[in-house]
Design goal:
The chain is of the alpha/beta class. Helices cover 31% and strands 23% of the residues. Bound molecules: zinc ion (ZN).
Amino acid sequence: MELKKLNDRIFYYPHQQETDRPMLVYLKGEKIMMAVDAGNSADHVDEFYSALESKGLKKPDFTVITHWHWDHTFGMHHIHGLSIAHNRTNEFLDIERAKLSDNEYVQFLKKDDECLNREYGDNKKIVVVRSDIQFEKELTINLGGVTARIFHAESPHSEDTVLIYVPEEKILFLGDSTSEDFFNDSYMDRDKLDKLINLIESTDCKYCILGHAEPLTKERLLYYLKSL
Ligand SMILES: [Zn+2]
């Protein structure tokens, strides 16, 4: 799969449905390179990095995590540079890592989730780590000519939702935040969704980027969310 270019500063490695791999994003600053999400396995990270290399792009200095779910975090142990996550994300990852020390839980996950089973098969080991850098509310990184405003937000998908806004390019990265909560019988919390819709509306952005879709315009995403 090839790296796709959104503009001169932003690239993405497209999502892959078969194994539930989310889109991995690359922000190219003059000083710092940053990725959004670590992917679902070491193999996913390797594929992403070779796609970067084939475009002459350096490996990321930082990788920001949008939320703790396996498809966004199980590649964290294998990234280049440092990872950044919300403190709740690390708490969830600690719980997951403790559970995974029990082989029965590993088998359960593989039975329960065919995408995970396809990614890991029988031999690949699941490795879960917490992030190198942790924050609670927000963190702004000046990448050089482009800024990443990383902040925690309320969302129906997970408690630890982190969004990334790039004001210079008017792009908002939303991870899976607009989806229902798969760990709570796929419950869609209307209040939280409405709060998120308000946040998107009040953000000066042109494009909204979701973890498991192609890039969308803000209008399209809002139209879709309001129809839910
Ligand atoms: Zn998710």
